[in-house]
Amino acid sequence: MDPIIIPTQPIAGQRPGTSGLRKKVKVFEQPGYLENFVQAVFDTQPELSGGTLVVGGDGRYYNKTAIQTILRMAAANGVAHVLVGCDGILSTPAASCVIRKHRTQGGLILSASHNPGGPDADFGIKFNVGAGGPAPESVTNAIYERTRTIDRYRTLDAPDVDLQQLGRQRLDEMEIEVIDPVADYAELMETLFDFNAIHQLFNSGLFRMRFDAMHAVTGPYAVEILERRLGAEPGTVLNGEPLEDFGGGHPDPNLAHTQVLVAMTEGADALDFAAASDGDGDRNMILGKAFFVTPSDSLAVLAANAHHTPGYRNGIVGIARSMPTSQAADRVAEELGIDCYETPTGWKFFGNLLDAGRITLCGEESFGTGSDHVREKDGLWAVLFWLNLLAVRQQSVAEIVRDHWRRFGRNYYTRHDYEGVDAKAAEGLMEHLRERLPGLVGKPLGGLTVAYADDFAYQDPIDGSRAERQGIRIGLADGARIIFRLSGTGTEGATLRVYLERFEADPARQGHDTQEVMAQLISIARDIAQIESRTGRREPDVIT
Ligand code: G16
């Protein structure tokens, strides 16, 4: 079959954000929009021609349509072999696992992560490289540049591929293998965690948990691993059926969007453990009995306890965290005598450190935790890690975290998000802050002295690449930090994120309410950034 060459023209705005190209479904439905981006990937990644590509997504609206388009274009661009998840499903960490295990040349992952799904909601696409991780900026920049000059794309005039049928089939010269989306991933988890110990915990009759899959991609993974392989009681997985619109919910596992689950951890009949994952399965939220574990604390606790699991029994070589993530993990690294790296927001910045063997664990405040087992953050992995710790340490979630604070100190932490802010107003707010930075150092701010104030820049220690303007940091003399950033994953207006952190070494003062402890920092942040006068917002939309 001869490929068809379709003339096209550049469509503005195809620069990938924090994690790929995310836009409204209606934007992706414009003629040529998806095709231009996919062709730009094939044009800039020549190793895909004659190579193997992984394709899958989180099952949201437009997932199946996009996969059929991609398969026709892959065949027309000379891809030899495609591994695609049955029914088009692959969680983001499972896609990374498949890319690595089968030594492919990369993958196209279809997801807008934690953003809502449906015809009027969000869609996204990103390219992951052969190591399994999100493409580094050098690659995403090249793809973007190509979208600015593109004038044709290649496809085939061929019917849709049957994605329900496991096994091999052909699309012209290209072989398509429809794979079980769970199998490779579940097998990998069995090598990392003590499944026997977790099985016993579930069998003890003394432990109850629920996992909220939020009608997103992790349902099938959680049912197979938690209920079938580990013997958790049927019904442990809530909202386990992936739906194209996530049942109308917002598949973002934080306190604002999981209120039913949170309520199950409170009161007389409270669960011992609860967790949730997001649209594409890479984020996680961990709850104990009436206890919320911040993602920053979770990373630090996992690092300090990694030796309790089979996969990390021999210890960890280093840790990395994104800049706005609290410094709790730094204290663990210091005690373990290992390096701790501070990277810009975005999982792609961990890739080089993982590939070079500099770090074993990494995490972000945005409910992301992961390790060198794949090159994406991994929601269920974090849940299994916690289950392994609970089974081995025979303590509650709260006891484990409070022990941790006693030993390392507590980094009180919160993030305030102002969503859907006018983009120009948000840019103006950041510019104004940037202008103020040089004059702040040494000056008092709400009774505290500013120790440093800068716009975070990162030089990758492996390839020397530099990322600038990655968030404004104001550090205070007592170690507290205020950070301002604009989100790179939203699809409407701008989202201003304000990250606040304060350290407390004294165990007697570690049990306070976070928002109360932060009150002074919150008011400093609002004043210095002129949030209300510039955005018209008195209060944040989401507090995590
Ligand atoms: C993505 C990235 C993460 C990042 C998060 C938040 O997560 O993979 O590395 O921390 O976005 O980004 P922002 O603050 O720019 O919105 P996900 O789960 O959306 O893929």
UniProtKB/TrEMBL annotation:
Protein name, UniProt field: phosphoglucomutase (alpha-D-glucose-1,6-bisphosphate-dependent)
Q: Which reaction does it catalyse?
A: alpha-D-glucose 1-phosphate = alpha-D-glucose 6-phosphate
Q: Which residues form the Alpha-D-phosphohexomutase alpha/beta/alpha domain?
A: 14-153, 185-287, 296-408
UniProt GO BP = glucose metabolic process
A Gene Ontology molecular function term for this protein is: magnesium ion binding
Q: Which UniProt keywords apply?
A: Carbohydrate metabolism, Glucose metabolism, Isomerase, Magnesium, Metal-binding, Phosphoprotein
Cofactors demanded by this protein: Mg(2+)
Which Enzyme Commission numbers does its entry carry? 5.4.2.2
Pfam families xrefs: PGM1_C_vert_fung, PGM_PMM_I, PGM_PMM_II, PGM_PMM_III
> Which organism is the protein's source?
Thioflavicoccus mobilis 8321
